[in-house]
Design goal:
mainly beta; eight-stranded antiparallel β-sheet
């Protein structure tokens, strides 16, 4: 016989809380449908059982119940319904007469499904427990009350009872009304196997599944991977807003002009590529903006004008001038037309069609350049600083070309348009038509000029005299770079047993090209200021010795030492000390350029703000190598060409050495690669007998690098110079405001601080050098300096006031005088005028003053200034660089 089975659940240790009823839901199971019908007709009474089992501290009571007033006819009519009509009919008679049960009735075959049916029985009282029929009407099927907070869980159907647990059943009507058979879905966190399939909560993966909450810290799906480390979070934001990339950088892909990276925390990081960058673009595409998109110049006005320096035509929607192979050209009237070449456009101030310049060149217009000039050469100027330069004076060393006038009078400079002249000043000119080498030596010397021996007195033995020899070297001089090389033999009648010495100077066309190191022939007052002397490369070895090809122009002396002359026998006045330890001989080399020094005022030099890279290639003797720039970059500078073999000249591999050791230079500026052939014809027969290797190094710049181009013209025999010092340089402001200062207690200024080339940009500006600007410090010396430009040298003086010792230098580190006291931190006072004329020179000069302090409260100020015709130039750190392009013959 089928039974209704329910449990009364009590608290721990069998105790029931006073005043509470725990209304227990019952479930009717029928072992057979016929047996079930007999129950409905029998009007069975309620039986009670004793405690059937005790599980730890929970007591369970089994109650057998029967149904009353349910006929077989009623069931038969409603067996596939919900019996709600009959339930409502008997409800009033049953309420208050017994315990109200909420239950679910199911047949074994699943044909009958009656939920929340109201049953009754006798009052069940244990101790002080009273009846309670309270509850909310949440069971919508029969409208009955939900009693208590119980819920069915899975038990043994065959044993005739189920187990109950406490549960709030919030929001779950089936749960609240004791319904059996609710799904696990929606209850995946209650710790209960709701659908009785043996799988609880998320273990029932068919109805419950974990989801990783990427923007909440933690491993919500319990797979051992949290947030950005979990593949579920790919492309989603974590709690800090980062995009997750557990699968790598491929999940971080953004626009073409963004550098994507997946960091160690599996988060996407992004860096914008620069405007006009190539990198991920294809074809002619460039980044339209920093971090933007790639765009073709024929589709983007910005890429056209900013990345290709082209002209955008808004009518045809084309970029004119971006591609020499597309045949599109701006006709000057706002449209790009293929092949329209007429002379009408030679005066429209637009570079059209096949014109090689603005309104010049090509099939119809006259040649580009100044009238009457045979040659035009581009000069590419690069500003490597972070700020643009305005009206900046650029120093150019111009080698003499055969078509130039001997005195460079025909040289002119224009803007990039090819015809707008700019101001320039010619500082000096050495034509190379005549030259004299002056030698003072002790115990022999042999000298070469441009591989040609000009003097050989290596076996002579006598003391040095100024001058032992005056040698005419005119025939050995060359335009451009020259190399002087001398071998100084040690004394002891040239056996290498005592010390030898050498001093020299070279005068070309009346101008001193290599200055004399010792300007006082009195042996007791030799020069001790090495920094003011010319520098040489030198090498020593045990006598007798001679490095192979040491005197050749192409010889690589980069591994030699650098020292100042004179190379004398007395260490007290010999700067290089190359001959102070017998029996060594010394070999010296000095490079110089014959040509002119020009200063050109360029109206605007924008900052390139671009990245550069260096590329190098090498080839053995007779071979050709090509240095290729990365995609999207072109050659901006040929850095060096070296040729030789490491066994004889210490020739290294690709490095940062500057200068060229081979004649000529590849014309590859602006091209994507540079090619050079290494052989004895163009590089000299260096390292005779050795297998030689050559190295070509170029600097590559991205399209964002915008060289400022000016043009140099020459080859006009009928014109005179238009050199203009005043128009090129800026007027001298109040001389009291052009000084800078630094201080220390080392009794010597920074290395080279008296020289023109010293970078004093980090020094502190002095508002008024005539006032007492001293910063108080104990035994602290003050160093001050300024730089000026002079078109010529005339009598010049300054007055320096100090209450202790002072030292004055002028020109390029030339010592002028000391007064007040003669040692560091000594006491004394000086306020007299210093004549600085002897140190000044045409061109750029530095005036430097050292004031020493004795004790405290010192004074150092310049109180008077008389330097006629002085002007100033602008300075930048670093200075702009320049390179010459190939000369164009204009006819």
């Amino acid at each position: 016989m089928s039974r209704f089975t329910g449990f009364k659940k009590f608290l721990r240790k069998g105790r029931i809380q006073k005043g509470q009823w725990y209304i227990i839901a019952a479930v009717l199971f029928s072992y057979s449908l016929l047996t079930f019908f007999s129950i409905f007709n029998s009007y069975s009474q309620i039986d009670y059982t004793s405690i059937v089992r005790r599980d730890e501290d929970l007591l369970y009571y089994n109650i057998f119940t029967g149904l009353e007033h349910i006929t077989q006819t009623t069931y038969s009519e409603n067996r596939q319904g919900d019996l709600s009509d009959y339930a409502q009919m008997v409800r009033g008679n049953l309420l208050g007469k017994g315990v109200l049960f909420n239950y679910e009735l199911k047949s074994i075959g699943g044909l009958i499904n009656i939920k929340n049916f109201e049953m009754y029985g006798k009052d069940i009282r244990l101790g002080e427990i009273s009846q309670s029929n309270s509850g909310s009407d949440e069971c919508t099927v029969l409208g009955s009350y939900c009693e208590g907070d119980t819920k069915w869980t899975c038990g043994d159907f065959g044993s005739g009872y189920f187990e109950l647990i406490s549960d709030t059943c919030s929001g779950d009507c089936s749960c609240q009304c004791g319904g059996y058979g609710v799904t696990e879905a929606g209850h995946c966190d209650d710790g209960i196997d709701n659908d009785c399939d043996g799988r609880t909560d998320y273990a029932d993966s068919s109805e419950c599944s974990y989801t990783e909450l990427c923007n909440v810290p933690g491993d919500e799906d319990n797979d051992g991977k949290s947030d950005c480390y979990d593949e579920e979070c790919a492309g989603k934001n974590d709690s800090s807003g980062w995009v997750c990339c557990p699968g790598g950088v491929s999940q971080c892909v953004q626009d073409d002009c963004i550098v994507e990276n997946c960091n160690s925390s599996k988060q996407c990081e992004y860096v914008n590529r620069l405007k006009c960058a190539y990198d991920e673009c294809t074809g002619q595409g460039r980044c339209e903006s920093a971090g933007g998109n790639c765009a073709d110049p024929d589709l983007s006005p910005t890429v056209c004008t900013d990345c290709y320096s082209g002209t955008w035509d808004p009518i045809q929607m084309k970029c004119c001038g971006d591609d020499p192979t597309d045949n599109w050209c701006n006709t000057g009237n706002g449209s790009c037309v293929n092949g329209v070449w007429t002379s009408f456009h030679c005066n429209d101030l637009v570079q059209n069609c096949d014109e090689t310049g603005l309104n010049c060149g090509g099939s119809y217009c006259g040649h580009c350049g100044l009238p009457g000039y045979a040659y035009k050469m581009p000069v590419y100027i690069s500003n490597l600083g972070t700020s643009g330069l305005t009206n900046y004076q650029v120093r150019l060393e111009v080698p003499r070309a055969s078509a130039m006038q001997a005195d460079f009078d025909d040289v002119r400079f224009t803007l990039s348009d090819g015809f707008t002249l700019v101001d320039y000043w010619r500082e000096s000119a050495s034509m190379g038509s005549s030259g004299t080498l002056y030698l003072a030596y002790d115990d022999g010397v042999r000298c070469y000029l441009n591989d040609q021996m000009v003097v050989n007195v290596l076996s002579e033995a006598h003391g040095p005299g100024w001058w032992n020899k005056q040698v005419d070297v005119s025939s050995a001089l060359q335009s451009g770079e020259n190399t002087l090389a001398c071998w100084v033999a040690n004394g002891g009648e040239n056996t290498g047993t005592v010390q030898g010495g050498l001093d020299l100077k070279l005068v070309v066309d009346g101008r001193t090209v290599i200055a004399q190191s010792d300007d006082d022939s009195s042996a007791s007052t030799k020069d001790s200021s090495c920094s003011s002397n010319p520098s040489f490369k030198y090498y020593t070895c045990s006598h007798p010795c001679e490095p192979t090809n040491w005197y050749k122009k192409a010889y690589d002396d980069s591994a030699w030492n650098t020292g100042y002359g004179p190379f004398a026998p007395t260490s007290t006045w010999g700067c290089a000390n190359a001959l102070t330890s017998a029996p060594d001989d010394v070999f010296i080399r000095k490079k110089f350029t014959l040509g002119a020094v020009f200063w050109v005022e360029v109206p605007s030099i924008p900052s390139s703000g671009s990245s550069t890279s260096t590329k190098c290639c090498s080839a053995s003797e007779g071979g050709t190598c090509t240095a290729t720039c990365p995609a999207g970059t072109t050659v901006s500078q040929v850095k060096y060409i070296k040729y030789g073999a490491s066994a004889c000249s210490n020739l290294g591999a690709c490095d940062s050495s500057a200068g060229a050791s081979c004649a000529g230079q590849p014309n590859c500026i602006g091209q994507s690669s540079c090619t050079w052939t290494f052989n004895n014809a163009n590089c000299g027969d260096t390292c005779y007998g050795y297998v030689k290797t050559g190295y070509l190094t170029v600097v590559c710049s991205s399209p964002a690098t915008t060289n400022t181009t000016i043009y140099m013209y020459y080859g006009n025999a009928t014109v005179s110079t238009t050199s203009n010092f005043a128009g090129t340089f800026d007027s001298l402001p109040d001389w009291k405001t052009i000084w800078t200062r630094t201080q220390n207690s080392a009794c010597s200024g920074p290395s080279g601080w008296t020289n023109v080339g010293y970078d004093d940009s980090p020094w502190t500006a002095i508002t008024d050098v005539s006032a007492d600007f001293w910063n108080q410090c104990e035994d602290c010396d003050m160093y001050i300096r300024t730089k000026i430009m002079l078109p010529s040298v005339s009598a010049s003086t300054i007055s320096v006031l100090s209450d202790d010792g002072q030292w004055v230098y002028a020109g390029d580190g030339t010592y002028i005088r000391n007064c007040g006291c003669g040692s560091c931190h000594c006491p004394g006072t000086c306020s007299s005028s210093a004549t600085i004329t002897s140190g000044l020179r045409v061109g750029e000069n530095a005036i430097a003053i050292w004031c020493t302090e004795h004790q405290v409260a010192e004074t150092c100020s310049v109180t008077a200034w008389n330097v006629p015709n002085a002007r100033v130039r602008k300075y930048a750190s670093p200075e702009p660089t320049y390179a010459y392009g190939p000369a164009e013959y204009l006819g």
